[in-house]
Specification:
alpha/beta, Udp-n-acetylmuramoylalanyl-d-glutamate--2,6- Diaminopimelate Ligase, Chain: A, domain 1, UDP-N-acetylmuramoyl-L-alanine:D-glutamate ligase, Protein-Tyrosine Phosphatase, Chain A, 3 domains, six-stranded mixed beta sheet, 22 strands, globular, cell division, Mur_ligase_C_dom_sf
Amino acid sequence: MEIAALHRLFLETPIVCTDTRKIDGPCIFFALKGENFNGNAYAREALKKGAILAIIDEEYYATGNHTVLVSNALKTLQDLALYHRNYCGTKLVALTGSNGKTTTKELIHNVLKTRYNTIATKGNLNNHIGVPLTLLTINPETDIAIIEMGANHQKEIAFLCKLAEPDYGYITNFGKAHLEGFGGVQGVIKGKSEMYDHLIAHDKFIFFNADDPIQLQKLNAYGRKTGYSRDKSDYRIIRFLGADPFVKIGFDQTTITSQLIGAYNFGNCCAALLIGEYFEVPPEDMKRAIENYVPEANRSQLIKRDGLTIVLDAYNANPSSMKVALENFKDMEAEYKIVFLGDMFELGQDSAMEHQQIAEQAEKMGYQGVFLVGEHFFDTASRAHKFKTFEDLKDYLRKHPVTEGTILIKASRGMALERILDLI
């Protein structure tokens, strides 16, 4: 079946599913494969549960007129998504970066939806499957789509840009994330910059942080851009007014008080303001949109309970985000501070060094308690409390409960360190 014909069927039933457990009515099922599953084996079940069509790539699972055999179900999904994206003609803003992608995406969405019909990546569906699924939620009435793109190796952002064909782009930052896959910090810069490379090659528009020397240098000779800065008069001046604990921003004569903890969220807010202004969103609407945004899903959440103030930032971590989280926590006004830090993943040969540096940084900051959790932190030379497993930490906290103070919880997603909330 040609993509144009498949697209006509999609327009009649504009719902795509890749998981039979989530089918609750008419849809088009794509039989995707993974290391531990084969979606082809669920084609019959998908049809029984209401799918009008099952796209499969193994002839053995064909079940008649309602299955379509293709050479690669994933590529067909991706081709359909690009075809649909171009059919709708929606303006598309793409963003990537080492840290802050999802928060920035949500802030941009909050700002733009005050004036436009918008859609945005749900959660962190930002890979080669999530991006096409998001593109397929666009409809002809959608004015702007905000698409988050994640990557852990070279050429991934380039592929996602080719898949989505963005009209605009923004890179949050270049940090020490996924060092193993990218091959070091320079590999991260090269890999994330694939978005700028794509946009420049296709003469598209770029938003950027003019205070980031890497971005400034890369875009110096490119004309179709606009940037923000704290003090460079050639760019949009946005002032940092503090973060204790919430980020405050000076935007012309207006003060914006966000519900985001940490100075590192200043740039995320700036991006939303810069992009909102470009799309002519009124300043008062942007102010309201940013002030009303409340982080969730373990991202820089401020929780108060039983005499404790908890900064929960356990959605993800890498050396760059860990460093700024510790620095921001140090600047918070509180007499008694405790940090719980969990392992950082995908650091490759730099893992031991990076964990050691974070352990030393935490020790030097004078916190009343430093707790390191996970095999990588356990192997550091540190005087902090170290626990090889979460169960070891749990046993310790049962015997030595934390009853007061201000607490930072920061770790990679795989550590699920938010479980500490059940222990304190």
